[in-house]
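Slack export, channel: ligand-projects

TW: morning all. Re-posting the request from yesterday since it got buried. We need the structure predicted with the small molecule present, not the apo form. The ligand is zinc ion; the SMILES is in the block with the sequence. No rush, but it would help planning for next week.
GE: picking it up
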Amino acid sequence: MTQPEQPPPDRISLDEMTSDALDQLYTELEEARAEQARFRTMYDVSEARVNDLIEERDKLSEQLTTMTDVARSNRRHVRAIVPDLEAATQRAERAEALLREYVSLANVTHQYPAMGGHDCLAENLTCAGCALRDKIRAALDEHQEQPGPPTR
Ligand SMILES: [Zn+2]
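GE: finished. pasting the full token output, ligand included:
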């Protein structure tokens, strides 16, 4: 601590400083300042890019939140209508089973007079029971291919 001040070994003392050495130092200082300015520009450009990315991220985050809300809302709606849909499907299935029973019964009763026979009132008139049976059969066949919307 109390030793006399000695310059570090790689530094020249002021007494030995020549004009050329001073010019060299000024040149190095100018180069260092130019380098610093380049880094400053790079930093500013990078900062602007980072800010753009943050803004973009915030926008995407907002969109994701909106989409999540919509998906939750849709899921709640589907859950709400599923019981109605299941009840309607069961009603349709019960009705379809009853109609199939009716078609089978009509096939028999309309063939045999002892069981009622055709309800033609005169020759060349069609039987209303058979016509109804045929319509129901066609509707059942159609329903199998393309189920209609549920009714309340
Ligand atoms: Zn008939």
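GE: first-pass observations. The chain has one domain: 17-145. The mean pLDDT is 86.
TW: perfect, thank you
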